[in-house]
Amino acid sequence: MADTTGAGGSTRAPDPFARKDPPLLDLTLWPNRSLSRRGFAWVLGIVAVGLAAPIVPLLGTRLALGVIPFSLAAFAALYFAIRRSYADGRLTERIRVWPDLVAVERREPRGGIRRWQANPHWVRLALRDDGPVERYLTLSGGGREIELGAFLSPEERESLHAELARVLARARAADFR
């Protein structure tokens, strides 16, 4: 855990997600899921019909035996790709900001949890164009740099950057009152 005393002491910060005092910001991010469960069923149905249509005239011939495995493989690949997309949609990033602490908790699709925390006075927020994605958004502090909102659009990352910059300025000012 990070030292929040600022003096290099051994006081450990409390678990940021067990705090009772309300944060200045409590934001949860998740990827956009544009295909509903019903849409998923429709897509698979339409693809099944589309893949079966060229096979129907070939039924009862040797050619059907050559085409059917490839059609089934294409259908299975689509099914598993969409299922994987739904699983990846369980990813969340929770950002909380208090006057004395910034905490980020990332919940991975397969259940893993990664946490990062730092003092808002030492946190650096950056929105860069030279990252792996357009408008790469990072938080640095506590000896680490983390990426925020990799699954967001560039416009959403810009909006998140503006909101975080505003709240971090408030957190820094609130600590001196």
TrEMBL record:
Entry-linked InterPro entries: DUF2244_TM
Highest taxon listed in the record's lineage: Bacteria
Transmembrane segments: 39-57, 63-82
Entry keywords, A to Z: Membrane, Transmembrane, Transmembrane helix
Name of the protein this chain belongs to: DUF2244 domain-containing protein
Organism: Amaricoccus solimangrovi
